[in-house]
Amino acid sequence: MAVERNLDDSYIYARLVEALDDSLLAIELFERGFTRNSTRKVFTAVKALLSALVVKYGDKLVQLAKDEKEKEWVKKRAHTVPTRSMKTLEMYFEKVVITVDLIVELALDLRGYQLNGFDCDFSRYRTIEEVKNDMIEVISEIPELINKYFEIKDSMIIALEEKVKSELKKFEDLSK
Fold first, then answer.
1. Among 43, 23, 56, 41, which residue's Cα sits nearest to residue 142?
2. Which Pfam families match (predicted)?
3. N or C: more exposed end of the chain, with fewer CB within 10 A?
């Protein structure tokens, strides 16, 4: 693995659990009326998933770096998924046929709402329904991406995936 700092399967496991747990918390917070806090949890869920992907596919990402400085960044820092680098990582993933563009874009939009609410100068959202729809879109993708890019047989992750899907279904049904 090209990524340094002793990041291994246990790190990936922890980030996947975090992504799923944060997804569940996002739904709970939204239902309790903490809409801006809930979007922060969606954002951190995406960052956790990206972090796991960086560690798992680090060797491939290092090969895409254009110079030594960038290679060092991928090896030593990319797993922290700085917000300002999420689009760069998305482009790297795209080159190794890992599709995360939609969730990255929506997570960044949701973060804008978390920070600024409905302020038309800073947020892409005008209504809470728009926020909820994007949350649903992102949260529904997280278990799918985990199944697609990770070979997980662990009962805890499988149970969390099922719980996310179940809670998301209830969450969606509340809108109808």
1. 23
2. PaREP1
3. C
Question: Which positions ≥6 away from 52 have C-beta within 8 Å?
Answer: 11, 12, 15, 16, 19, 150
What H or E segment, with its residue span, contains residue 163? helix 155-175
| Structure-token pair, residue 88 | 């760069």
Q: Tokens 């947020």 identify what position?
A: 123
User: What is d(CA 131, CA 29) in angstroms, rounded to the nearest whole number?
Assistant: 13
- Least Cα distance to 49 among 133, 173, 152 occurs for 152
Evaluate whether 69 touches 48 at the Cβ level (below 8 Å). no
Size (the chain), residues: 176
Are 23 and 140 contacting, i.e. CB atoms less than 8 angstroms apart? Answer: no
Q: How far is CA 137 from CA 56, 57, 109, 143, in A?
A: 24, 24, 12, 11
Instruction: State pTM to two decimals.
Output: 0.92
Sign of the torsion angle spanned by Cα atoms 17, 174, 107, 57: positive
CB burial string 57-77: b at 16+ within 10 A, e below: bbebbbeebeeeebbebbbee
pLDDT one-digit tens code per residue, 44-89: 999 999 999 999 999 999 998 889 998 999 888 899 999 999 999 9
